[in-house]
Amino acid sequence: MENRILLIKDGLLLQHPYIVLMVLLLSLIIMDPFEMSPVGGHDFRPVKNEIASYKQVMESWLWDNRSRLGQGNLEFKDDIFGPESLEFDALGRGPYAGLADGRIVRWMGEDVGWETFALVTPTWSEEVCAKGVDSTTYKQWKMESKCGRPLGLRFDKKSGNLYIADAYYGLLVVGPEGGIATPLVTHDVDGNPILFANDLDIHTNGSIFFTDTSKKYNRVDHFFILLEGETSGRLLRYDPPTKTVHVVLEGLAFPNGLQFSKDQSFLLFTETTNCRIMKYFLKGPKTGTTEVVINLPGFPDNVRINEKGEFWVAIDCCRTRAQEVFVHNPWIRSVYFRLPLPMRYLARFVGMRMYTMISLVNEEGEILDVLEDKNGDVMKLVSEVKEENGKLWIGTVAHNHIATLPYPLEAPNL
């Protein structure tokens, strides 16, 4: 009987040799022995993610058909490199920005220009780290762990201290006069190095909440967090009096920007992989719990509050139908991203075309305004929006400029 089964199998294989070839080819792709795929050399283990329905989000979203963000102004072109986060001190000076070359710089006016305000490591050197306009390219990536990559910035308005979330050096602080920043948190509660500190905000009691985007990948490999959908990200809290760090939330999918509400009864944080803003309650009957505030059409970065208590979120838009299939079927991602093709082609095949969108929402997740730059006239990728003195200041981790736009916008002449 066993021999008969073998003969039948052999006969089928002889009649359909293409099946053998397909099996061999699929096996070769999955194993990727020559590491020719975009994920070659990585322990790539895609997982299923929790994301809202593509149709539901796209049909209910408020779109900016006039692409009004494209009316903004380019500032400091090729004079500032990858300004992820923008901040102003208590005296209104600034903006301050963390750059791709590892520096925190401050704008001192037309006569002086940009000056280096702080560094995250005493080993920083101009020879090794200062790549100019190349700072936002792959040429800087191999130097990032040495030079630092400051991301989130926040001033303590009372002390004048600037707190910094650096992707490689963790949570740091520098005094009002600048200089070399002092490390506060470089390891988690288990003694493991923090791989990807991303953003922070300061509570009135002095505690500092910050996001640790992944326990598996650092900033250079951040794209693998999205592709894999891994959920090792955390929200952490540092308590200055005891100099201890605590895990507030874990199991997060690319936690990114965060922002306290005006009364600090809750904080918002973005989950980039899941395309949404989450709320974590700090007061009231829901204390310690989370809920979805709003599902987004793209991938959010930082979130910042304005004087009215509303929230600006920076979004790299947009999701695609193919992404929804990938999210719910990890095995497809496991095969697709092991194809021996550059990532730009794989992204193009599934319809990915990223452009900049910013949105203003209230604490209930109601959309108050949406501004888009579909043609990339001002910015192709966005990381933060800060409303200051009647103007939007827009940062980007990927480009060598800042964008500004008067806000509120004037009503068009009809």
From TrEMBL:
Subcellular location: Vacuole
Main localization of the protein described in the UniProt heading: other
GO molecular function: hydrolase activity
Record InterPro entries: 6-blade_b-propeller_TolB-like, Strictosidine_synth_cons-reg
CC per GO annotation: endomembrane system; vacuole
Segments crossing the lipid bilayer: 12-31
Domain of life (superkingdom): Eukaryota
Transmembrane recorded as keyword: yes
Alphabetized UniProt keyword annotations: Glycoprotein, Membrane, Signal, Transmembrane, Transmembrane helix, Vacuole
Start and end residues of each Strictosidine synthase conserved region domain: 198-285
Annotated family: Belongs to the strictosidine synthase family.
Protein name: Strictosidine synthase conserved region domain-containing protein
Organism the protein comes from: Buddleja alternifolia
